[in-house]
Amino acid sequence: MVFKPFTSISVALLLILVFAESAHSFLLSTSKRKKTGLKMVSPNRPASSKRREFLNKMSATTMISSLLFSRSAEAGVIQSEQCTMGEGTGCEDLAGGNEYIRSLQKKSAENKAVIDKDAQMAYQMKNYPDYFASLNPPKYLVKQPDGSFSVYDDQELSKLKAAGKIKIEKAMAKGGKYADLTQKPIMVLVE
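Now predict its structure.
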């Protein structure tokens, strides 16, 4: 059990006062040092001692505040049920009876397949083309009309390009609404 003799307001004021006094003495010592050009703030203590004193006060203030304000965390927030893309046991609690939030959760659940497909496509197009191009001899990733991918070498790819069966397509995001500029253009097989 933690002893809490002060109210939270009085502790906050105490912490502000300690911080303000520490900051003031630290700033005062550094401004004196700048004006005089000396490395020593006073004949008895060097500037590094003032810094150390300031840091010690701040760490003590932090420790005191953590002891005085420590209490059990709000377990309801930390242990809330999961709601991902509008699906999960915690969606109803997160909506809190708000119909607009419920409609957004429903829309997210409906678009989950499209979002997952876009994420998988983005992952594949950001990682695999460079991997296949680094092979010796290099290979090239080409998207098939059904959405799958095939790998071709230089000779096969040049034959397909000569036949006009390869087109360059910009990567799209959000179900085809926006061009995804984080990805390179995609080679697509046209039949």
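The helical segments are 8-36, 47-69, 75-78, 91-95, 99-110, 112-133, 154-162.
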